[in-house]
Design brief:
This protein has 405 residues and is an all-alpha fold. The chain folds into 2 domains: 7-199, no CATH class; 204-396, no CATH class. It is built from 15 helices and no strands. The chain has helices at residues 17-20, 24-47, 50-76, 82-101, 110-131, 137-162, 168-184, 204-230, 237-258, 261-271, 275-285, 287-306, 317-341, 348-360, 369-396. Helix 5 packs antiparallel against helix 6 (137-162) and helix 10 (261-271) runs antiparallel to helix 11. The radius of gyration is 22 Å and the shape is globular.
Amino acid sequence: MVDRGRPTAMLRPPRGQERSRVTFVELFYDLVFVFAITQIAHPLADEQDLAALGGALLLTVAVWWVWVETAWATNWLNPDHRAVRFALFVLMLVGLLMASAIPEAFGDTGWLFGLTIAVGTVGRGVFATLAFRGARPDHVHNFLRLTIWSSVSGIFWIAGGFAPADLRPFLWTIALVISMLAPTVRFRVPLLDASPVETWDVAGEHLAERVSLFLIIMLGEAIILTGSTLSTVPLDWASLLAFVAAFTSTVLMWLLYFNHAAAGGSRYVRDAASPGPVARLAYTYVPVVLVVGILLTAVADELVLRDPFGVDGGADPLFAAALMCGAPAVYLLGNALFDRAIGLPWMRPHLVGAVFLVALVAAYPVVPSLALTWVANGVLLLVVLAEDRADRRIRRGDAPSGSSA
């Protein structure tokens, strides 16, 4: 039972299974933010231009950053404590309002998107600062630093929301850069100086599982988006092949991360002498590349389902080809970066596959969308097989751990 009366009851136990356990309320919280990211997919599929792509990337990274900062907070706070649970419910409500504003974030609802991000991040920081009072003085100072940084970025989030449409991406980019820069400089502020690395005593396995579960839900949402698109198009052999291709790409992306990397990353951050900096890179900065890859793949799958042969004018052929090939390339790059973040060398299959996929875009004038997406799946399959081969060699002792064979 959790002791509700003492301040330390708001914190996770310092050791044991409860230290790393992902709670149901955390998973409940995640649903709002996965919904927020999927809100970005449909407008991009409809607009199909570089401005829409840039806006989608900005919104995706912003939503990810709001989520991952909360994941860090609940690495120390106990979600089973009623006050922490209530705070998560409030953040869910704010997040749902943020998600509802996404389709017109660069239009009429930009004020709501900017305001909810500012209120949510600053409010979370204030709550965590108060929650650690009397139990973790080091974290009181750490989250006070974070709250100051969030307040500065919040000014730009709010200003961007009320600014003219042409200034909004610029101001929001500044806000996002401030937020993402903060951990790199260890939340350094005047008088408080920088956050000591030794206070970042994260439960690595908890953070690893949080990110892994978020990616699983993202992949599941991609399947749902594909299924909902299939229900709106004529059902023929071409649409069925496009649907199978979309499902296959989702399975291959799951294999690329969860076959080997997910477990290896969890072990690496668990055993690290200083887990905080490892988790900062491997489970804060790098996963956003994977999230972007999944999002863009979902958009590409929707475009192929709408027009498998690119003859009905449903999509710009170059834009569709760039997504069909570029999205899995981004995902491969994300996996390569993750391997580096957990102490492995650059994995040649990921890098070669990403380069080949980018080059494959040039085939769009002569290769139909349906064929192009299957070729892209073939590249992902070859990388999966290469990873399995390298893993078997490592287990046999034929190659050092992290071989890029």
